[in-house]
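Notes from the 1:1 (GR / supervisor)

We went over the backlog. Supervisor wanted to see one worked example end to end before approving the batch request, so GR pasted a single chain during the call. The sequence is below; no edits were made to it. Supervisor asked that the structure be written out right there so they could see what the output format looks like.
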Amino acid sequence: MKDRQDETAAPQASADELEGMSLSIVIPAYNEEGAVRHTIEEVRAAMEPCGIPYEIIVIDDGSEDRTLEIARETGVRVDSNQVNTGYGAALKRGIRHARHDYVAIIDADGTYPPRYLPQMLALCRDQDMVVGDRGAAMRNVPLVRRPAKWFLNSFASFLAERKLNDLNSGLRVFRKSELVPFLPLLPQKFSFTTTITLCMSCNGKRMIYTPIEYGKRVGKSKIRPVDFINFLILILRMTVLFNPLRVFIPLGLALMAVGMIKFVYDIWMDNLSETTIFAFLSALIIWSLGLIADMISRLHLRP
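Structure output shown during the call:
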């Protein structure tokens, strides 16, 4: 099956495609009083015609507005964190509460159209995870955030050894049984979806993308300037946890090459320098760290 479908319009899933399936939809919400009711209504409008069992779970992440109250008024399952613990923490709580075999996650801010859920669920029958690919619709992302997103996507694709179209899309459907073993590895904050993608792709899970539209959010973004530091930590964590040898081996080879060039020069000058020895030792240390990180990675990510 192709990693991308050809159209961004949400195709309709037939009753036969969804027969025997059921879905839990988890909606994390933090200060989303202006959008949470509309999101829940749109999810219901998308799922009711399918005629399959489903549930909507809203996890209020310590909102300071009326988000929790409004969510409870809609009659869906609602749980609440006492304080704001993070996007990832809210999703993990919701996934653990899910009663059905398949779980969908969707943001409460109105950016992801729920009409894609039935078709994504149908696609997930033969997959472990289906991810909504925002593609060209990412033009709604602020310009200041695009370089970081491009770098993160490129680096993650390098680690996963496959093209990852949309690393941190907030609309996806997956088999609960395939994701639950990875929950302890998943972070509490915004890098949750990034880590899910790498967990699945680096462990041979079946994952495809399907194009979706991406709207302008209701309310203010929760991204803060301090998250740039979190971004750097995420890059380091991704390197060590998912495919360390993809980084450590080339880095060690580069240092070894520098050492060899300097060694030839030193022989020519009849003077072995400290720089040459340092380059050789650095290469050996980098390779050793890579092997240790790879061992730890395999212990954490083994089935």
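Supervisor's comment: The radius of gyration is 23 Å.
Batch request approved.
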